[in-house]
């Protein structure tokens, strides 16, 4: 799966990009028709500790899924967002297989 990581208002390091790629590659075992993923990592200028936002957009044939999570770290946000996407992809797979 092709994963594009976009960092907004900061520069992203290789370790974080590798983590995102590795985590999103796991989504393919839930639904194998995922075309690509766009990951937007943002830092909000707030005094709150939970100012890291991970927005993941998954492209599958006929649909796009968008999940946005805000946490203290990007790793945690990506983890939560990908768990939400796992549930969405499993639902989609079940929906499609029930129509066949």
Q: What is the element layout, followed by pairings?
A:
Elements: E1 2-8, H1 14-25, E2 36-43, E3 52-60, E4 63-71, H2 74-99
Parallel strand pairs: 1-2
Antiparallel strand pairs: 2-3, 3-4
Structure, explained:
InterPro entries: RHF-like, RHF/RaiA. The protein has one domain (2-98): Double Stranded RNA Binding Domain (2-Layer Sandwich). Helix 1 packs parallel to helix 2 (74-99). The chain starts with a strand and ends with a helix. Strand 1 (2-8), helix 1 and strand 2 (36-43) form a beta-alpha-beta unit. Helix content is 38%, strand content 33%. The mean pLDDT is 90. It has a 4-stranded mixed β-sheet, with helices on one face. The protein has 100 residues and is of the alpha+beta class.
Strand order, sheet with most strands: 1-2-3-4
What portion of the residues fall into strands of 2 or more residues? 25-35%
Q: How large, in whole angstroms, is the Cα Rg?
A: 14 Å
Strand count:
4
Give me the CATH fold name: Double Stranded RNA Binding Domain
Q: Describe the main β-sheet briefly.
A: 4 strands, mixed
Name the structural class.
Answer: alpha+beta
Q: How many individual helices?
A: 2
Low-confidence stretches: none
The CATH architecture can be given as 2-Layer Sandwich
Mean pLDDT across the residues is 90
CATH class reads Alpha Beta
Q: Distance between termini? A: 25 Å
Order of helices and strands: EHEEEH
Structural domain tally? 1
Helix content: 25-40%
């Amino acid at each position: 799966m092709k994963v594009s990581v976009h960092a907004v208002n900061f520069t992203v390091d290789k370790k974080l990009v590798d983590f995102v790629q590795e985590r999103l590659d796991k989504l393919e075992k839930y639904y194998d028709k995922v075309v690509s993923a766009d990951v937007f990592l943002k830092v909000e200028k707030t005094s709150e500790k939970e100012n890291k936002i991970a927005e993941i957009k998954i492209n599958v044939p006929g649909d796009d899924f968008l999940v946005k999570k805000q946490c203290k770290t990007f790793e945690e946000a990506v983890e939560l967002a990908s768990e939400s996407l796992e549930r969405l992809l499993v639902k989609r797979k079940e929906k499609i297989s029930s129509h066949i």
